[in-house]
Write a structure and sequence with these properties.
The protein has seven helices and 16 strands. The protein is an alpha+beta fold.
Length: 293
Amino acid sequence: MRALAAGLLLLAGCAAAPPAPAPQGRYLVGEPYALGGRWSYPREDTTLVETGLASVLPDGPAGRATANGERFDPAALMAAHRTLQLPAVVRVTNLENGRSLAVRVNDRGPTEAGRVIGLSRRAATLLGVAVDRPARVRVAVDGALSRAVAGALPRPQDGPRVETAPVGTVDRESLAPPEGARQAMRVREGRGPVVPVAAEESTSLPDVELPGAVTQGAPEAGALYVEGSRFTSQELAGRQAARMGGARVQPVGTGRRTEWLVRLGPLNSAAEADRALEAALRAGVSEARVVVD
């Protein structure tokens, strides 16, 4: 009898247990953090345009919370980025086949240092990105939609900032805005019209609806490079190029101010780019990244 009573009490306790709370999304920039052997420095950027390699995110536990507290769904159009504000809306273009799609960035990643963005399984499928083969992509922030989705979410109180974090031994200068910002206008030119080729259910947010259509443009795969820093001093650029082993220093910009870009390549494959990037990071070039040009 005592055992029966205990069992009934146990069942009653289980039945009364409240359900787990659903993840609550919020706007987040966040502090510097280490992932996959390198440091990243999140920042708010509504004009970013960059190229690199995209990978497919692992599905992970069903309904897991993303870095900003939303629910990750591999069947939705979601993505992970190392530094963008969360959430953000970016248009990802697979440069190898010309397909383009808007996705919602709401997580940190990818883990691999040589990947510019991680795509949910559904987004990767629509863009033609295979699980076992990273694709060359362009990532461009949609400023208007990013501001709209951010405005629909609560913002946490600003916490203490991390003043310093390990960045390795590098030659540094105060430079103009990054290449992605300068090239935002250039990459918009000469693309021609895009033609809808597929439709996907829209990602709905409070008062905001994202486009869910894949568009088709012309392929423009480009070559892979590992890029270091930009310098106003050719001497400093030469020092970094020597550490990267075989990298070249090339002048960039026009007019009265010339900058010097350190670049290694072209490289034949994503695997070769990964090896070159790993060597550059070991040499202390913490800004090194894989780009497509």
